[in-house]
Design goal:
The protein is built from 10 helices and 13 strands. With 323 residues, it is α/β, with parallel strands linked by helices. The strands form 4 sheets. A 7-stranded parallel beta sheet has the order 3-2-1-4-5-6-11, with helices on both faces.
Length: 323
Amino acid sequence: MERVIRDTHVCVVGGAGFLGSHLVEHLVEERHCRVLVIDNLVAGRREFVHPFADFEHADICLSETHLRKLFEHYKVEYVFSYAAWPFVPTSFSRPLHVFNVNAVGALNVLNAAQEAGCRGILQVGSAEVFGDQVGSISENSPVTPHSSYGASKAGIDFMCQAAWRERKTPVVVLRQFNCYGPRPLHRYVIPSIVEQLHQHGPLVRLGNNTRRDFQYATAAVEMAVELLEKEPWGEIFNMGSEESIEIYTLAHLVGELMGFSEITIEVDSTRVRPWDIWSLHADCTKLYSLIGKRDRTPFREGLQKTIDWFRQNGNTWRFPTYE
């Protein structure tokens, strides 16, 4: 079965965050939805919430009942669960906190949405659940997380599948590979490279030369809406660009776009993960069989838009102060 998510009531949990704010923008401006944003603003920023969206300050870890009442009050039909603690290094030192947000809090959202009678729920997962793999990663690849963060995301993925089997909760899981674009809120690798080049000239300090699959944020959220419209309840889908790049090569590309003919890369031991994932490369065959394949945003173009946003906003990313 398929429905169209347009001119209806939608909630984006985590809608003040990086991907969440891009999703809200798409739902408001392109699909003319009335959008409720729920966010505790620990990582998200109030100014990133679209001016035409409703906003409720709430913590998903505190009260399933409160979330249900919000969904009912705003007559929410579809819920996009983007709230998470997404910065992997935090999970090394605060595993319980990260698990509470990513697994327990997300389960609160799932249960509250079902109790409120919502017609569909999209839970945003992560490619981190796969750990280290060789070649392209499909939904059938082993789930072997290399971090507490990855383990927390695997936990909610399995709970979503169980919820569909046990009580027919209308939920689909989207395992998102790396995203980039304007409004990042953590020191992910692309924002970090841009910031370092601005501050220190042609010198970048990085961790391991791993390989990652990067997808531009606006494309990612548009495809997420299309997936929820298809209602593939209880299923898990990968989403990425199906292309990958080594981080050191990425640094040279960003340097070129910022006007440096050459850059120097130094290894920073503080940026090396204790059990790194060497390669993440998405196989999106299952997703494209449902929503159709499309051209990705050219990587150079997306990087340039990201750099331009940084420069247009005072050469700063506005990272939260807790870091």
